[in-house]
Write a structure and sequence with these properties.
There is one protein chain. By secondary structure, the chain is mostly helical. It has a domain of 59 residues. Helices cover 95% and strands 0% of the residues. The protein is rod-shaped. It comes from Dokdonella soli.
Length: 130
Amino acid sequence: MFEQINTQSLALGKSYADAFVKAQGLALASFERITELNLKTFEDRVKASVDFWSEAAEVRDFEGAKAISAKGVQLAKESAEKLYANSQEVLGVSLKTSEAIGALAKGSFENTNETLTKTVNAAKKATGAR
């Protein structure tokens, strides 16, 4: 009887360990994708800012200052839009990862429940047969 309990405990432990490894893999893949999105956005915005400031450094008169100020406003608007779009994409990746991990956990709990139910039913039959 103890051997059966130990075997079942080991099987359940292995099942949970497998689920945790899969969840960790999903979380790491999500983290990698989010980092990639953020770095891409950061790189794009730094490049746009450097281009703007390089052009602004060449301004020598009032007309040039007027033109560059309009470009500065446009840069700020574009940056805000890009950062918002990036945050929405990051949120989408986070939600998909959360859903996948939730489904994994649900499947693991359902599998454990089925295993325990089968074990209890088998034990009931074994004690009822005596």
